[in-house]
Amino acid sequence: MPRKVEDIVPNMKRSIRDIPLDEDVGETTGKTKKEFRGREVPIKKVMPISPPPIEKSRARTSRSWNPKPILVSLGVLVILGVGGYYISSIFARAVFTIVPRSVEVNVNANYVFNTTDKPDSQLYAVATATDSVTINVPATDGPKTETKAKGMMTVYNAYSPTARRLIAGTRFDSGNGNVYRLTSSIMIPGYSKSGTNIIPGKINAEVMADTAGAEYNVAIANAPEKYNVVAYKGTDKYTTIYGKQYSSFTGGFSGTKKVVDKDTLASTTKSLQSMLALKLMGEIKGSAGADTVMYDNGFIINYNPVIIGGNKAGEATVSISGNAYGVLLNKDQLVRKLAGDANIDSFKGMPYTVPGLEKLSFVINNPKEFSPSKGNTLVAQISGDITIHGQVPVDELKTKLAGLPLGSSDKIMRQYSPIINLEKTSGQVVPPWARIPTNKDKINIIVEK
Q: How much is the pLDDT for 372?
């Protein structure tokens, strides 16, 4: 229970109950509140004082520091960074743009070519081809006609070092039953020797079929390997004195002669010659090696006479055959001749290409004296412009660049300075911090022309 509070009356004082509630009396003056207010001092608002900073610092330092979260965060960042680096390296790609070094050459001079080594001349080779083409044209039937095929044969003597004579009418067997006779007597030179090798003597001679008929017409492309002298059969001379077809055998016919209009025959002959020229040129170019070049004007054709035949009423076959000779020039030797030793040597033996070499103008200056079948001296004027480009070995470069830092690619490129224009060559890797990929399929080398 609460205690009872008694009225406390201090000595010589009034009871607290006697103090009026509406008047305040000063303790020392005895004046009322109103009188005391006249001396009142206004109370100003005082901002609370913040604790000293040193106390805050002490509060912080009083806490314990835990580095584990920071270390974990750093570890995650490192793992992400390393992982990102290797992942980006896996998908990295490199691109190099290379401009080949080039040398421009203007050509305009006369050049001498021979089949054997001679001073101030270049070697040439001769490719040959023989073929025929045929066209059907309107015709009328004429009188019955019989003609014998004719042609040229080269007769060889590998039997004796002294000359051997064959008289006119000597028969040569083709091996399939067809016989051809010499139209005049010949003297075959004796053979010569080169060490133990026998070099047969030879001479060209005309032969005629023993009998009339178209079956004796033989294109040189279909000629047998040898024609043997019938009279020498069973002796050593049968295999050592022999003939080889030098031209097509043509003109053989037996039957009703076909008559073709003069103008039709002239236009047909012209068309046949153009067709045959294209066919023969294609055959020679097709047989030529990639290291040679043949110019159109270095292509010579000998056309045989037109043959008219056929058995169909109101129609005739018009055929023409010919021998073609193509002058083949070695590309490397020709380019050195045209560009000069200094220009070629500047490539330091590294590969180069010469696009447009085949487009130079090539004109034979001695057409009357030059004979491709004889292989004598050829003089030709060659003119035009060529550009020699270094040939960039793309696969070889990829192998050397694979896995290197991009900064090391310059050292590799300098190894190919004779064929690469270093000032115009550039390279980049994506992403930029990655190395050049080790996978060569991810290295793209662009060779600009």
A: 83
End-to-end CA separation in angstroms for the chain: 116
The range of the structural domain enclosing residue 240 comes to 143-259
Both 147 and 121 in a single domain?
A: no
Question: Is residue 247 situated within a structural domain?
Answer: yes
Across the beta sheet with 93-98, what order do the strands follow?
A: 426-430, 93-98, 443-447
Residues 203, 305 within the same domain: no
Q: Report the number of distinct structural domains present in the chain.
A: 2
In a domain, 82, yes or no: no
Q: What CATH number does the domain containing 204 carry?
A: 2.40.30
Residue 171: how many other CB atoms lie within 10 Å: 15
Residues 252, 156: one domain?
yes
238 and 324 belong to one structural domain: no
Question: What per-residue string of b and e applies to 180-207 under the rule 16 or more CB within 10 Å gives b?
Answer: bbbeeebebeebeeeeeeeebbbeebbb
Residue 156 shares a structural domain with residue 248: yes
The residue to which tokens 């270095």 are assigned? 298
**How would residue 285 be classed by pLDDT, with cut points 50, 70 and 90?**
confident
Mode of pairing for the β-strands spanning 201-209 and 150-157: antiparallel
Residues 300 and 250 placed together within one structural domain of the fold: no
Indicate the SS3 state at residue 205.
strand
pLDDT digits (tens, 9 = 90+) for 218-256: 988 789 999 999 999 999 999 999 999 998 898 888 888
Cβ distance 197 to 142 under 8 Å?
Answer: no
**DSSP codes, 244-294:** EE-S-BB--EEEEEEE--HHHHHHHHHHHHHHHHHHHHHHHHHHS-TTEE-
Shared domain for 149 and 116, answered yes or no, is no
pLDDT tens figures, 85-108: 555 556 799 999 999 999 999 999
Both 119 and 196 in one domain: the answer is no
Give Cβ neighbours of residue 391 (< 8 Å, ≥ 6 apart): 100, 350, 351, 352, 353, 419
Q: pLDDT digits over 109-147, tens only?
A: 999 999 888 888 889 999 988 888 999 999 999 888 888
HSE, CB side, 13 Å, CA atoms: give it for residue 444: 10
Specify the 3-state DSSP secondary structure of 180: strand
Which residue from 202, 204, 203, 220 is spatially nearest to 149, judged by alpha carbons?
220
Residue 18 in domain: no
